[in-house]
Amino acid sequence: MKALQKLPKGYKENIFFDLQKDKKLFLLVNGLSLGIVLLMVVPMLFIIPITKTFDFSGSLWMVLLKLGTMSVSAIAYLFLHELVHGVAMKICGTKKVSYGFKGVYAYAGSADYYSKGSYIFIALAPVVLWGLVLLALSIFLPQSWFWVVYLIQLVNLSGAAGDFVVTVRFMSLPKDVLIRDEGVAMHVYSLTEKAKKTDK
């Protein structure tokens, strides 16, 4: 289903999410993000020691190059993540996507209305795309660069905690819902009982 510019008749807002203002949701998202970090980092430290990438007993310039690459890549990733959200919105038929920052969150938003399936596709597109790209890089690059790529993958997966939480919540909603994403706030609309009876 393509994005809609206007809310169809018979729909009414019944759920509102705000990742910034809802304290419980904020704690859930950030708790999940921290959990992902711990689950990814702790076991991997025993499999591939971080000293294989950042060996200060060797070339200092190489260590600085890796740290610089990691820092620049992490910053670039934040923009690329939101860009993929925007491209996914375009694929779903959106003409105008807005980008920006609200508090600690970067966002891509739109005034359009999306079906549940379209919205889940938009929410998960960046983490899946960049997850596969980073996985390929971690496999094919020399092991001495593993932690540079892995730490960006860490940013990818932990930074998508909000997308994971929203996706899980939306999967349980009826198929006919429509979603408008303002960036960090999401409005969910569903058919009123009167409209459902009229359709029948």
Low-confidence stretches: none
Q: Helical segment tally?
A: 6
Number of strands: 6
Q: What number is the mean pLDDT? A: 89
Number of domains: 1
Description:
Helices cover 57% and strands 16% of the residues. With 200 residues, it is α+β, with helices and mostly antiparallel strands. Helix 1 packs antiparallel against helix 4 (146-159), helix 2 (60-91) runs parallel beside helix 4 (146-159) and helix 3 (116-140) packs antiparallel against helix 5.
Helix-strand layout with pairing:
Layout: E1 11-18, H1 23-47, H2 60-91, E2 98-102, E3 105-109, E4 114-115, H3 116-140, H4 146-159, H5 161-171, E5 178-181, E6 185-191, H6 193-199
Antiparallel strand pairs: 1-6, 2-3, 4-5, 5-6
Observed structural traits:
4-stranded antiparallel sheet, 200 residues, 6 helices
Give me a quick take on this structure:
The protein contains 6 helices and 6 strands; from the N terminus they run βααβββαααββα.
